[in-house]
Amino acid sequence: MAKLKTIIVDDEPLALDLLRSILSALEDVEIVAECSNGRDAIAAASSLHPDLVFLDIQMPGINGFEVVKAMQSDTMPMVIFATAYNQFAIDAFDLHAVDYVLKPLDSERIERAVQRAVERYSTQDDEAGHKMPLIGAIEEITKRFDKESGVPSPAAEALPEGIKRKLLIRDSGVVKVVPFGDIDWVDAAGDYMCVHALGETHIVRSTLRELLEKLDEQMFIRIHRSTVVNIERVVSVTRLQKGGSLLHLADGNSLRVSRNYREAIRSLFQ
Questions:
Q1: Tens digits of residue pLDDT in 79-100
Q2: Which of 37, 132, 169, 248 could make a disulfide contact with 190, Cβ separation 3.0–4.6 Å?
Q3: How sure is the predictor about 143, in pLDDT bands with cuts at 50, 70 and 90?
Q4: CA–CA separation, 145 vs 173, rounded Å?
Q5: Cα-flanking dihedrals φ and ψ of residue 6, to 5°?
Q6: Is 10 buried (19+), middle (13-18) or exposed (0-12) by CB count in 10 A?
């Protein structure tokens, strides 16, 4: 089997050095990039299409959870979190079968995590499936944080009636009202949706079909079984040699259109 193309991400230079040293000794891993922040990690994952990412959670700016939410489900690598998080986060990772290594890093634990990744890589060919447990764990941690901190969950009934062309999203104990025009794209991870709007990513517990019923069908179109795009945010289209195409959005992201959905895109941009 070919080596797993791996990106390592940590804002602490010493932790990055240690992780590089441990992984470089493993024959199943090829390190293709090292990143010290979340923004670089998102860019590297988008351009290099890694098989595996070792991802620190607690980083300034864009944290590890936000990196996961920003990645497309259809090109999602396997992720192993490196964390010093407290117990309720660890319980959530265990509940959703999300792999993690605790800090301070231990070479034996990292090697076991890599071995599990190798086994998953050989048995799972649906990349979109990698995102489902990650989003489930993040949602579980968010719920537990709300409960621990005593943040109330506002009822939808408390919001003004007659809100049109806007999506209501509960995020960390607050109901946010997101105008349709602010939404760039949406991708699915099982029963969770990642709504990308104005540089933020919101997790919504919903199926793709349920969310599509709430959105304006004149603005949003499905371009992949797990991805929906706001066509008003598309600035250019690039055809791919093997069929399908790339949509380039105003926010700088590029989304892949699968061959099964290329006819819908073609009719839009004639």
A1: 999 988 777 688 889 888 889 9
A2: 132
A3: confident
A4: 9
A5: -125, 135
A6: buried
